[in-house]
Design brief:
58% of the residues lie in helices and 5% in strands. Helix 1 packs across helix 2 (53-78) and helix 8 packs antiparallel against helix 9 (243-264). By secondary structure, the chain is mainly alpha-helical. It has one domain (23-264). The chain is built from 9 helices and 4 strands, in the order βββαααααβαααα. The radius of gyration is 20 Å and the shape is globular. Residues 274-279 have low confidence and may be disordered.
Length: 279
């Protein structure tokens, strides 16, 4: 039997500045959003252009609010509504953790819809370019989960070379499910979306990339949930499924619907005066 790996005991705080502390989790959100917008500024100008560089830059504030507010509200409503109903002020204490990707996704969709309407853009075409960038933040977020030693996996065989004992997971070796999610929801999903986005024939079908993201994330999440320990206050539902899998099913159906819709609609011509041309 191979020796079981021990969790390396990272400090969840990246920077100590007197009473001010900056956590890796916060840095992951900041890095994901900033790098995502930097890539978005390039993607929106690829023909047919979906927006200008300046508009993509302006979207930074909108997407930040969508991610943070949607993610927190989603966690409160989807995972612990009874607790936060009894302690409403604790819903504001985001520094204690508790963010839902599915809630953050809804928040970003609302931000995309309002921003597109305000700027006279095609909602689906702009969403296509934006969703290509989302896995960057997902990958950083899952890496931060690992650094925090949270959201660890289900018990694993000690013979598994990368089975790990987490300090809050008891003495049993577990799957490092955060790493699985970083590789699938982050690295793999981004690679697939970026390669697809390089094809003009796909960019001309508004909604196809967004649908590919929704369906791809749902598949990755449903797969990884087989290795991730469910939240203790929720546990398993009927047939051993988890809340993450339940919430991913409508996301997958919406993604498939968007891709089908994109294939039957006329090609997108792009905005009238793109700021710059590209591939």
């Amino acid at each position: 039997m191979l020796p079981v790996l021990m969790f390396p005991q990272f400090d969840p705080v990246a920077v100590h500045l007197g009473p001010l502390t900056i956590r890796w989790y916060a840095l992951a959100y900041i890095a994901g959003i900033i790098l995502g917008v930097m890539l978005l500024k390039r993607l929106v100008t690829w023909r047919p252009a979906a927006a200008t560089v300046m508009q993509a830059d302006d979207f930074l504030v909108w997407v930040t609010l969508g991610v943070v507010l949607g993610g927190r509200l989603g966690y409160v409503l989807f995972y612990q509504p009874g607790f936060y109903l009894a302690h409403p002020l604790m819903a504001l204490e985001v520094w204690h953790g508790g963010m839902s990707f599915h809630g953050g996704c809804l928040g970003v969709v609302l931000a995309l819809a309002l921003f597109s309407w305000k700027n006279g853009l095609s909602f689906l075409a702009f969403s296509d370019r934006a969703t290509v960038c989302v896995p960057i933040g997902l990958g950083f977020g899952r890496l931060a989960n690992f650094i925090n030693g949270e959201l660890w996996g289900r018990p694993a065989s000690p013979d598994l070379p990368w089975a790990m004992i987490f300090p809050t997971g008891g003495p049993v070796p577990r799957h490092p499910s955060e790493i699985y999610e970083m590789l699938t929801e982050g690295v793999l999903l981004f690679t697939v979306l970026f390669l697809a986005a390089r094809k003009q024939s796909i960019r001309e079908r508004p909604g196809f990339l967004a649908g590919m993201f929704l369906a791809g994330y749902a598949c990755a999440r449903i797969f990884c949930e087989h290795f991730r320990e469910p939240d203790a206050f929720l546990g398993y539902f009927s047939f051993g499924i988890t809340m993450g899998q339940i919430l991913s099913i409508p996301m997958m159906l919406a993604g498939i619907g968007l891709m089908v819709h994109a294939r039957i609609k006329p090609p997108y011509a792009g905005i009238a005066e793109p700021e710059a041309g590209a591939a």
